[in-house]
Amino acid sequence: MALEWVPAADRPDLLAEPTAKAVAAKGIDAKVAAIDPELADTAAFCAHYGVAPEDSANCVIVAAKRGGQTRYAAVMVLASHRADINGVVRRHLEARKASFAPHDEAVSLTGMEYGGITPIGLPEDWPVLVDENVTRRPFVVIGSGLRRSKLALSGAALVEATGAEVLSLAL
């Protein structure tokens, strides 16, 4: 099934509120396409819509703990890879422990739907860490903040839009 990509700025109804605000405020050049929300999870999405896993990137919210404090960060890695959360990410965030943020916490803190979380529109003080492989993609599909749509932009545009730090994160 073909995806119908349109400028994200033209369809804020297909974006979570924080994502729509960021797209408008920063003039982010991304496309958005409506999808079946039941197919939002990466494997189902890629299989149904014919998107290669190396053209899709996942965003995970990491809770990094040190000295009784928790910091949150977004980590972006291609769907064909896994992120080194307990190694590179934990050390980069100078945390004693790093793990995926609990489902309910990730949803409430981001204002986005689980399975659609995107780094575009996250709280400004959250670091965004993007695997170097993502930056090499001329077109990468990511979440929109909602399960019923996806965003697409180049890896370089993703880094620019989020002020991300580029690291070697993939296992």
TrEMBL record:
Gene3D superfamilies associated with the record: YbaK/aminoacyl-tRNA synthetase-associated domain (3.90.960.10)
Alphabetically ordered keywords of this record: Aminoacyl-tRNA synthetase, Ligase
An annotated Gene Ontology molecular function: aminoacyl-tRNA deacylase activity
Cleaved signal peptide residues: none
InterPro entries: YbaK/aa-tRNA-synt-asso_dom_sf, YbaK/aa-tRNA-synth-assoc-dom
Residue span, YbaK/aminoacyl-tRNA synthetase-associated domain: 37-159
Superkingdom assignment: Bacteria
A Pfam family per the record: tRNA_edit
Keyword Ligase included in the entry's annotation: yes
Keyword Aminoacyl-tRNA synthetase among record annotations: yes
Protein name: YbaK/prolyl-tRNA synthetase associated region
UniProt organism field: Thermobispora bispora (strain ATCC 19993 / DSM 43833 / CBS 139.67 / JCM 10125 / KCTC 9307 / NBRC 14880 / R51)
